[in-house]
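Researcher: Let's do a round of design. I'm pasting the structure tokens now; please hold your answer until I've finished.
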């Protein structure tokens, strides 16, 4: 069974094809680093990491690019709020993001470009769009003219008459069309800036991904991925500016993961309580590092992969606990498998019914992943392998057969990014201290200084000294 994918652009499944045989050019939008990660950031990272892993398992050589947006309105505003430089803020939260992704088993990208390291490429691209007559300048900056690209809306299905005010589309009374978007923003007082042919300023959000994919993949990608919220306007604008510049198809396969929705413990999927998208702006974000205290990072990854990537994913703390329990079944099996294989040597199977059963499970796993990366079905194959291995224990299956089944189980877990060793749930004493400090910081933001002071004094009595600086808190033991 060949790989098929659901393309956002065609709104249906299509055969997976690549520009170069045996190679995949893959670009996934990374974070804007102005704050800590919530679990909504974990989903695209885990989803596209798993897709990358499977493509490599299937024999492709994958160039995986994921950028860091390190200059943005939100970064500038947050740096002012905390009283630190925007560069230090961006570096701090990029480091934190990369630590969190490592905890989740997300592989490092082949290339991790930072926006501010590619300003010359962005200026060159904008100049090219100006020269082609599809961009224009106003006192506020340089804008892409959507009316000069007749296929605008091809990805998202929107028309040029749709209202743009509800999305991240900058307003300017001198714009020619409401959906025209910023390529370059004229500097405002106190903001960072770079020199350009249009005066000092900084790049718009959308231009960075086109410039970086252009530099590393010649403006042609096999897969471009990200959350569903990026399809419009971000990816629509990327498509328009890239194809207007090159005249070539920008992306073969657009893949978008669904939102994480928030529900109450005990609520069922589909009930009204479960319909709200998670996000910082809604005040319902659950921080990733807090999630690591509820369940192991491996359980969080299993929970994400337990729902097809295109579908909404319901978050409730008890679902993470269920995922941790499910992982326990796998690790109990692995522990017994290791005990039985200890000292057995590298013996390969020589026939018999168990290896045939292994082949059936592997085929089901491949079929699931070939069908638009259906990880829930792939996980079913993992648990089927566990069941068959456990049955092999009862039947005293030969060591060689158990080893073949174990190799398959290890291989499938590797594709899904699940570790082969148990992970500790929660953060221990240090994690509890960090959780209290996080609660204290939230109280400070809400100007609940009584609660803030009680937590500080209580920790001090326990020998923990809190140091507040620049809006952030660190701690040491006395």
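Researcher: That's everything. Go ahead.
Model: Designed sequence:
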């Amino acid at each position: 069974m060949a790989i098929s994918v659901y393309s956002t652009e065609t709104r249906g499944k299509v055969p997976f094809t690549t520009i170069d045989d045996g190679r995949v050019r893959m670009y996934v939008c990374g974070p804007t680093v102005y704050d800590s990660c919530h679990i909504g950031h974990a989903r695209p990272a885990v989803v596209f990491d798993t897709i990358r892993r499977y493509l490599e398992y299937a024999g492709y050589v994958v160039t995986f690019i994921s950028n860091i947006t390190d200059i943005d309105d939100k970064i500038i505003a947050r740096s002012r709020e905390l009283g630190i430089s925007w560069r230090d803020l961006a570096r701090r939260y990029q480091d934190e993001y990369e630590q969190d992704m490592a905890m989740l088993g997300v592989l490092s990208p082949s290339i991790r470009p930072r926006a501010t390291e590619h300003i010359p490429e962005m200026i060159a691209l904008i100049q090219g769009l100006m020269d082609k007559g599809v961009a224009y300048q106003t006192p506020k900056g340089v804008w892409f003219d959507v009316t000069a690209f007749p296929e605008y809306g091809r990805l998202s299905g929107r028309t040029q008459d749709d209202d743009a005010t509800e999305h991240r589309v900058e307003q300017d009374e001198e714009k020619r069309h409401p959906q025209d978007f910023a390529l370059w923003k004229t500097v405002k007082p106190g903001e960072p800036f770079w020199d350009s042919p249009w005066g000092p300023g900084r790049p718009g959000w959308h231009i960075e991904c086109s410039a970086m994919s252009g530099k590393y993949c010649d403006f042609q990608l096999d897969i471009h991925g990200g959350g569903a919220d990026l399809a419009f306007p971000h990816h629509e604008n990327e498509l328009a500016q890239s194809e207007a510049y090159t005249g070539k198809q920008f992306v073969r396969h657009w893949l978008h993961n669904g939102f994480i929705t928030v529900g109450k413990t005990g609520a069922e999927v589909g009930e009204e309580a479960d319909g709200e998208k998670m996000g910082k702006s809604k005040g319902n974000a659950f921080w990733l590092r807090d999630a690591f205290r509820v369940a192991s990072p491996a359980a969080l990854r299993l929970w994400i992969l337990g729902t097809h990537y295109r579908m909404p994913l319901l978050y409730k703390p008890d679902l993470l606990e269920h995922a941790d329990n499910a992982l326990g079944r796998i690790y109990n099996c692995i522990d017994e498998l290791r005990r039985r294989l200890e000292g057995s040597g590298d013996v390969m199977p020589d026939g018999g019914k168990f290896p045939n059963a292994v082949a059936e499970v592997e085929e089901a796993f491949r079929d699931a992943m070939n069908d638009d990366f259906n990880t829930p079905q792939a996980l079913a194959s993992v648990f089927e392998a566990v069941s068959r291995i456990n049955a092999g224990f009862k039947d005293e299956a030969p060591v060689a057969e158990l080893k073949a089944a174990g190799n398959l189980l290890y291989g499938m877990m590797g594709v899904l990014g699940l570790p082969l060793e148990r992970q500790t749930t929660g953060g221990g004493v240090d994690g509890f201290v960090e959780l209290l400090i996080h609660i204290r910081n939230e109280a400070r933001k809400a100007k609940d200084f009584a609660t803030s002071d009680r937590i500080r004094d209580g920790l001090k009595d326990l020998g923990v000294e809190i140091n507040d600086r620049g809006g952030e808190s660190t701690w040491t033991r006395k």
